[in-house]
Design goal:
Number of domains: 1
Order of helices and strands: HHHHHHHHHHEEHHHHHHHHHH
Number of helices: 20
Number of strands: 2
Largest sheet: 2 strands, antiparallel
Helix content: over 70%
Radius of gyration: 23 Å
Strand content: under 5%
Structural class: mainly alpha
Length: 511
């Protein structure tokens, strides 16, 4: 767990620096200088670009993580692996772009009234999609080389600094909205250039075509794996973004406080609240970036004891950290949204449902990585297809049939995530005989539930700043105190001991 703790800690630090910048952009700048529909456009363009990139990748990210360990040899330029990866990426991008252009009339017919901005800037998504697939391909390649920190810094910190600068230009009226969108797209495309430059800096940018026997040996397996994982990976990304897309498609124009607004207004609220749920996922994603290559290595070595240990350790850490962050944000939700236009506070229940779904996703640990990097990856694909169908159906039911709007989309996502992860847990247990839970996980959740109840009895204190600070410190102490003192999560205690050691601080009750 040493490399996981070390690189996971670095990635978490990078991610939380990015979180601060994201807070500035998503909470202080976007809602206060763009109108709500413009916020919706800026957010949904990224959502669509992510889906676009997954179709373009043709399952490439999974192929890189699964098979690169068999090609890794710097002296032989990794047997031309990166060249063939880039070729697959290019073919996928061209095919996806053709389909994207063909779909334009359908988009116009469905969104021209309720989401005019999306129709107007439709083609701007193409370069965003190209940059996104390029970044994720090189990110997977560098992760396989155990180079995870710099790509994360580029995506989490450098990108958000540039976004801050771009919205600042608009805030100071140095550019109009159309020019801002152009700059915003260019900024989001720049991360692909930066991550490619980093691979060049590491002298790992091997783009020469090499017809290696190893490529021929593994090509059939990689092609077969790619066909299955393209549906699995695309399905996962699609299901993570379909709620915002269906809000844009189904909610239409409505009357809000005497003003007629389009569906992009609701997308703006939903995607802004969704940002706060991603805060919970930061440690989880950081750990996944480090552990995914380790899982692939464990499969290569057929070391199920190490796999089982890693599975439980990741779940233990994610349960503590995810619950702590959820309690912290929920307790301070009203104070945080005090700094935003009042319409965004209507998304409070959206946050509750989404965050509970994401928390369950976190505490189930590595089940997704274990299944799609194993020989049973076909079952993961089948589950993912069912997950997509379930997510779309539930979103339609709650948004349109039940007329529950953005709250309905959040409920649909919550239900889908819980059912999906229960089936994946069963899959891993049935085929591999391992599961991630320990009794300590239950104690963590019970303590978190107690903090959730205690928060409802704490009255508002003086002003938002005092209230936010006191709630954060008080509930943080109530939650972490018994966990550390009773050693409920030994991994968490060990991590804090190692963190404090360079500062000469020793707390005996942690040992």
């Amino acid at each position: 767990m040493g490399i996981v703790q070390r690189d996971g800690f670095k990635l978490t630090i990078v991610s939380y620096i990015g979180l601060i910048l994201g807070y500035v952009n998503k909470v202080l700048l976007f809602p206060n200088f763009l109108d709500t529909e413009q916020v919706g456009l800026a957010n949904i363009m990224i959502n669509i670009a992510v889906v676009y990139a997954q179709f373009s990748a043709l399952g490439l990210n999974g192929i890189v993580l699964r098979f690169f360990p068999f090609f890794r040899d710097k002296e032989k330029e990794h047997h031309g692996f990166l060249f063939w990866a880039n070729l697959i990426m290019l073919i996928g991008f061209v095919l996806t772009s053709i389909a994207f252009v063909i779909c334009k009339p359908w988009v116009v017919s469905h969104y021209s009234e309720s989401a005019k901005l999306l129709v107007e800037y439709y083609y701007y998504i193409i370069p965003l999609g190209m940059a996104t697939v390029c970044f994720h391909t090189y990110d997977a390649y560098l992760r396989s080389l155990m180079k995870t920190v710099v790509p994360s810094f580029i995506n989490e910190v450098a990108l958000r600094v540039l976004i801050t600068l771009s919205i600042s230009l608009y805030a100071f009226k140095l550019v109009n909205f159309h020019q801002f969108v152009i700059i915003y797209v260019a900024v989001n495309c720049s991360i692909a250039v930066m991550v490619t430059a980093y691979a060049f800096y590491l002298r790992q940018l091997f783009l020469k075509p090499i017809f290696s026997p190893r490529i021929r040996r593994f090509s059939k397996h990689m092609f077969g794996y790619g066909l299955y994982t393209i549906l699995a990976s695309t399905g996962n990304i699609f299901s993570a973004n379909v709620d915002a897309l269906m809000i844009a498609a189904l909610m239409g124009t409505q009357l809000v406080n005497g003003v007629t607004v389009g569906s992009m207004y609701f997308v703006g609220i939903y995607t802004t609240v969704f940002f706060f749920t991603t805060v919970m996922l930061i440690p989880y994603r950081s750990i996944l970036k480090v552990t995914s290559p380790l899982v692939a290595l464990h499969w290569k070595d057929r070391n199920m004891l190490a796999m089982d240990k890693l599975y439980k350790q990741v779940t233990a850490v994610n349960t503590v950290v995810g619950t702590l962050i959820f309690i912290g944000i929920w307790a301070g939700f009203d104070d945080i949204f005090h700094f935003m236009p009042p319409q965004f506070a209507t998304g409070k229940m959206v946050f509750l449902y989404l965050s509970l779904g994401r928390l369950f996703d976190m505490i189930t640990g590595l089940n997704g990585v274990i299944t799609y990097t194993s020989k049973k990856y076909k079952y993961d694909m089948i589950l993912t297809i069912l997950f997509v169908v379930m997510t779309v159906s539930l979103n339609y039911f709650f948004i349109r049939t039940m007329n529950m709007g953005i709250n309905g989309a959040a409920i649909a996502t919550f239900i889908s995530l819980v059912i999906y992860n229960i089936f994946k847990l069963g899959l891993v247990k049935y085929f591999f005989g391992i599961q991630p839970f320990q009794l300590s996980n239950l104690w963590v959740l019970l303590i978190g539930g107690g903090c959730f109840v205690i928060n409802s009895f704490i009255p508002f204190l003086m002003n938002v700043y005092v209230d936010l600070a006191v709630r954060s410190v008080l509930l943080g102490a109530i939650f972490m105190g018994p966990i550390l003192f009773l050693k409920i999560s030994r991994d968490m205690n060990e991590f804090i001991i190692k963190f404090l050691k360079p500062f000469g601080i020793r707390m005996r009750f942690l040992e």
